[in-house]
Structure formats: C-alpha cells, structure tokens
Design goal:
The chain is α/β, with parallel strands linked by helices. It contains 19 helices and 14 strands. The protein has helices at about 35-55, 60-70, 75-80, 85-90, 90-100, 105-125, 140-145, 150-160, 175-190, 240-255, 255-260, 265-280, 290-305, 335-345, 365-375, 415-435, 450-465, 470-480, 485-495, and strands spanning about 1-5, 10-15, 20-25, 135-140, 165-170, 200, 205, 285, 315, 350-355, 380, 400, 440, 445. The longest helix is centred in the N-terminal third of the chain and has 22 residues, at about 105-125. The chain starts with a strand and ends with a helix.
Length: about 500
C-alpha cells in the first residue's frame, strides 16, 4: 500500500494476486486529504477563524505573514485568491515549524491530517485484504518523506486499526518509478509487443492511476533635502556618457564618509540590536519603495549567511509582497497600515524596529514606529534629512541621519540614499551576528551550505579553523550534515591528526 502525501495525496495498493485499489487522487479542489495543500489551507482558515473569534493574532499567523511578506491579515484575502496549489501547499512548512515549537493550532492541524491519511490508507487496504493480513505501508511524497515526526503520527494511527502493518518510508524519489516504467514501456514498444501489457514488479501499466490610528509626522523648516537639486548635475541631460558615469560615481564615492560621520549613533543602534537579539527578540526593518526593498533584502540574507531562523530578522514593506517588484500606489502614505503591520507581526517590548525613510517623512514608517513605541519596543530611524524635527513623544530611541546631499537625479533616493541605507544595514546585521558568536575570525561558521559554492566555502572554513586538509574537512562535514559548527566540534574532539 502506497500512502502519498506531498502537494496532493492519494493511496494506492496492490495485493499479492495483482488486484489493485486506489483512494483519493482527485486533486486539491475535490480531495487531497492530509496533503501539504490541505495542511496549508487549514492553517490559513484556522488563523483567521481564531482571529475573528478571539480577537488575537496567533504565532502561526505571524509566521505566515512573515513568509508571504504580507503586512496584516486582510492582505491574505487577495493573496489566497491568486495563489496556486503549490504556493498554498508550501505553507505546510510553517505549520510543521510552528508545531515543533508547540503551537497548539498547528499541532491540531497535523493531528487531523495524520488521521485523514491513516483512515484513507486503511479504507483502501480493506478493499484488498482481510483484517489480520500483514500489509506493508510505503510512505511517499515530500510531506511524509521529509517530516519524520508527522510520518510517525500516521504510522501510529494506522497500527491502531491495522496491527499487522509494517510502515516504511520510500528511500528514493518516486519519480524514479516513472523512469523505470518508461524504460520498460519503451522496450515493449520497440519489440512491437502489445502496448499497455508491460509489467514492472508484476504491475500492469493499464492499472496504474492517472494521474486607522493616525500619527503626526515630524516637521522640517526647509525643503526636503532629498528633493533638492544637485548643482553639479544641472546639465545631466547634456553630458557625455563618460562625464555622466564619472559624475554619478564621484557622488557615490562620498557616501561612506558621510555615513561614517554617524558612527556614534550607529554604534548605539547596534548595541540595542545585539541586546535584543541576544535575549531572543527580533529585528524588524520597515520601509516603503527602495527603503523597504533594501530592508527585505538584508533580512532575507541572514538565514543563508548566518544560519538564523527566518523570524529573527524580518522586513516589512509598504504595500506588501506586490511592492517588492512594482509600485503600489498610495501604500507609503498610509500610517495606519504601518501600525497594523507591526501589530500583526506580534511586535512586543522584546523586539526592535528600524524605520527606513529617506526623506524622514514616510507616513507608513511613522505609523510603524509609533505602534512599536506603544508596544514598548526600542526604535531606530534611518533617514537622510538631518533637519528633521521631532516632538519628545515622536523621537525614536536612536536617529541615524547622514547628510548625503542632493541626488544626481533629483529626488531619486535609490541612488546615494539607497547606497547609504545598504551600508548601514550591512553594518547592523554583520556586526550583530559577529557579537552573537556566529563568526570566528572573519569566517561565518553558521552559514547554510545549500549549494555547491557554499559547500566549497564550508570546506575552506573548516580547513582554516581546524588545520585539516580538504578531504578530512569534507568527510567531517558530511558526517555533520554540513553543519560547520558541528564539524569543527567533531574535529576538535578527534584532536590533531598525524
């Protein structure tokens, strides 16, 4: 009996005499009980149901908003209407992660899914065998193969009803079965045998299944510095390419020194960030347009570079996921949306929120900072308008406001302001992770070696820090599931090799 749960689900069995039976496989709209799709969909329904009923937004809800780059629950309506089957099924990973952290809603969803799969498997096998017959249940599909705890839950449920069940996981990807069938069929056709009568492991091919609070903005007595005209680029449209390139790069070259002038404020901000992260809190970047995209970019780089959980550093952009690739009209002007985004990410006094607003006037960012302050969280503002004036209640915990001067292209803050923002965020996360012990010397010991380039880097890191050759480093990394820190511990216990 094959029990499959991946994006979809079904059960398919064959008796010793060659009789077959199938249950499920109707697709996500009609069936797929216990599949990744159903788990993801149940999670979406559960989080909004409990939000309506209890007025609280769950930890699972926070995880899903973060994963989808959405800012508040109502954003889920548009997302789910446009999401395909795979995108909803991918949310099952968040359910498994939440259940591992003892989230009750997630655990209940998985118990229900396991029960559905087990009952379907037993119902299918009853069409082929009598109670008391020994049956092998083979678990296939990404959900059952990649989630051992869930697999054990399904196994336990099956054994309650069918005591003589042997439950095993498929050891190779199921696609190889299709390859084997294709090879066998090709042999039959090329020998002019009757199509459809080929057998593999005794199975006839013809029997196979087919498959709004508002926040007052700070003031500035003069024209926004980010909107001022740069006298050096007045003739930009008349310059040659060589002159234009030299002008832009000359302007950009001054940015690092301007940022360095804010060293004390950056250091103060970093101390706050490290303290928050060390105590288990989270770092949030909030911005609109280029500022928001840079925050999301920096947050997304932390898990592969430093092995951090994805919730540790998060990016929030005005307009949500769609704004990552296109302009969302009016999104940055809604301060209440910024406040809602903070509220529904579950920000508390244990977290820290960094607002990024080139002009210093973005309402979405100020809405987020205001809500963060209300929650008791420390706040940081990165802007490029040192003339900005705050009331005592408005002022963030730390303000970093380099004066990079007017842009070469008037008002285009993706240029010098964008470069300065990237530098500051690089400093924040790089040095915070250094202080959290994720770097030895200048080597990242918690990186996630998820591709060939990063595995080569992991080998070099282990060689550098252990003194071993590449062959020994690679072998130890394999033994340690490519966890650099674990590989170094193993080598340290072994001691120096001859």
């Amino acid at each position: 009996m094959i029990v499959l749960s991946g994006t979809g689900s079904c059960c398919y069995g064959r008796s010793a005499s060659g009789r077959t039976a199938k249950l499920g496989g109707w697709g996500h709209l009609l069936g797929d009980k216990g599949s990744g799709y159903e788990i993801g969909l149940r999670a979406l329904k559960a989080i909004v149901y409990y939000f309506d009923r209890d007025g609280t937004w769950s930890r699972l809800g926070q995880q899903i908003l973060r994963t989808l780059q959405l800012n508040e629950p109502s954003d889920l309506i548009g997302w789910v209407q446009n999401a395909n089957k795979d995108e909803i099924a991918a949310l099952a990973l968040e359910v498994f992660a939440a259940s591992a952290k003892r989230d009750q809603t997630a655990s209940d969803i998985l118990k229900g899914a396991a029960s559905s799969l087990a009952h379907d498997a037993v119902a299918c096998v009853k069409q082929l065998a009598t109670t008391g017959t020994e049956v092998e249940f083979v678990f296939s599909g990404s959900v059952l193969r990649n989630q051992p705890r869930f697999r054990r839950m399904v196994s336990a449920q099956i054994r309650k009803v069918w005591p003589r069940a042997r439950c095993v996981a498929l050891q190779i990807d199921s696609v190889w079965g299709a390859v084997a069938l294709a090879r066998e069929e090709f042999k039959v056709q090329s020998s002019k045998a009757k199509v459809g009568q080929s057998r593999i492991l005794g199975t006839n091919l013809t029997t196979l299944p087919r498959n709004r609070p508002q926040f007052k903005l700070p003031s500035s007595d003069e024209l926004l510095l980010t909107e001022a005209r740069n006298p050096r680029s007045i003739l930009l449209d008349k310059l040659s390419l060589a002159q234009s390139i030299r002008l832009i790069l000359t302007e950009e070259a001054a940015v690092p020194q301007t940022v360095l002038a804010q060293q004390k404020q950056i250091e103060r901000a970093l101390r706050l960030i490290v303290r928050v992260l060390r105590r288990g809190g989270r770092l949030f970047y909030v911005g609109a347009g280029t500022s928001g995209r840079l925050g999301v970019l920096d947050a997304s780089e932390c898990p592969p570079t430093f092995g951090t959980p994805p919730e540790m550093v998060q990016g929030i952009i005005a307009g949500g996921q769609r704004a990552l690739s296109q302009a969302v009209e009016g999104a940055e002007d809604d301060s209440s949306a910024g406040a809602q985004a903070i509220r529904f990410r579950g920000v508390t006094k244990k977290d820290i929120v960094v607002g990024i607003a080139a002009s210093g006037h973005t309402p979405f960012v100020w809405g987020a900072l205001g809500e963060a302050k209300r929650c008791g969280a420390p706040t940081i503002l990165i802007c490029f308008n040192p003339l900005l004036k705050f009331s005592r209640l408005q002022r963030p915990t730390v303000v970093i406001a380099p004066n990079v001067g007017p842009e070469v292209l008037t008002g285009s803050t993706r240029l010098k302001c964008g470069s300065a923002t990237k530098l500051i965020l690089n400093v924040f996360t790089t040095l915070a992770m250094v202080k959290l012990g994720k770097v030895v010397s200048n080597l990242m010991i918690d990186l996630n070696p998820s591709n060939a380039k990063l595995r080569d880097r992991a080998i070099r890191i282990v060689c550098e820090l252990s003194g071993q050759d590449a062959m020994a480093a690679q072998a130890t990394l394999r033994e340690s599931n490519w966890v650099v820190r674990d590989a170094l511990r193993r080598l340290k216990r072994k001691g120096p090799q001859p």
